[in-house]
Write a structure and sequence with these properties.
single chain; Serine Threonine Protein Phosphatase 5, Tetratricopeptide repeat; 2 domains; globular; TPR repeat; UCP035836; TPR-like_helical_dom_sf; O-mannosyl-transferase_TMTC
Length: about 280
């Protein structure tokens, strides 16, 4: 297989993987674990584990509170996060843009603003916001990891992985960073390396649901559907775990991504990453 054919095949696989990440709802983005506190029917429940109905209810409840106090930093960030999870990226960005005006030098606000920009596809402004939030003499590992996630979306995988490794120097064995690093290799078509990092992430005591769902994704992408469903069902309801795996099967069947990847492996089309 020619190098160009291998590159095109990996690009198609990465596009399939990214579609799976987004549509199956399995990916994490390195954000802090966040719950809805005491607002709404899903009080105390982590945002990433909410169903579509729970997210909608939380969005409505948080929206009411936000309307009466839009400059409450914690409330605004929480509301923007729920809006983003609920698919309202434009509204989420509007909330964070207003908050960034009110708190122009706040690291938490700038970091959340950067993530909202990235979710809206405004990657370069997102990168600028996250970098502005960073303090070189006291670097924040969360911001370093967020920078890596944006660089990955810009297609700058080598720079992204350097940022993840820097974040791991600052916060060794942090599962969200290990997960981001694993997802970087997934999007690059290296499923074996992706699984290595995601398994390491999932074994950490502070690993959350997103990390394990990312592991389920990469296992499923390798055709080990029963194992993927078992991992997913540890925290998801059985019907949701089964639905995610069914979606994986359907996508891989439609786009032939798994067979394409195996052909590339046999033909030497895949590149070895040394960084």
């Amino acid at each position: 297989m020619s190098r160009h054919a291998g590159t095109r095949g990996k690009a198609r696989f990465a596009a399939t993987a990214l579609a799976l990440v987004m549509a199956a709802g399995l990916a994490g983005c390195g954000t802090d674990r966040m719950s809805t506190g005491s607002i709404g029917p899903s009080r105390g429940k982590a945002v990433e584990t909410m169903s579509a109905g729970e997210l909608q209810s939380a969005s409505v409840a948080l929206g009411r509170s936000y309307a009466s106090n839009p400059n409450d930093k914690g409330l605004a960030i929480k509301y923007a996060t729920v809006l983003q999870m609920n698919g309202d990226a434009d509204q989420s960005l509007a909330v964070m843009r207003k908050l960034a005006i009110a708190y122009p030098k706040d690291r938490d606000v700038l970091a959340a603003y950067g993530k909202a920009l990235a979710a809206n596809g405004q990657l370069q402004p997102a990168l600028d916001a996250v970098r502005r939030a960073q303090t070189p003499e006291y670097p924040d590992w969360k911001l370093v990891s967020a920078e890596g996630a944006i660089l990955d979306q810009l297609g700058q995988k080598d720079q992204a992985r350097e940022r993840y490794r820097k974040a791991l120097e600052l916060k060794p064995n942090e599962p969200s960073v290990l997960s981001n690093l694993g997802m970087s290799y997934l999007l690059g078509g290296d499923l074996r390396m992706a699984e290595t990092y995601l398994r390491s992430a999932a074994q950490q005591p502070s690993a959350d649901s997103r990390v394990r769902q990312n592991l389920a994704l990469v296992v499923g992408l390798q055709g080990r559907f029963d194992e993927a469903e078992k991992i997913a069902s540890q925290e998801l309801p059985p019907d949701q775990a089964a639905a995610n795996v069914a979606y994986l099967r359907k996508m891989l069947s439609q786009q032939n991504a798994w067979n394409q990847l195996k052909k590339e492996d046999k033909g030497g089309g895949a590149e070895t990453n040394t960084n």
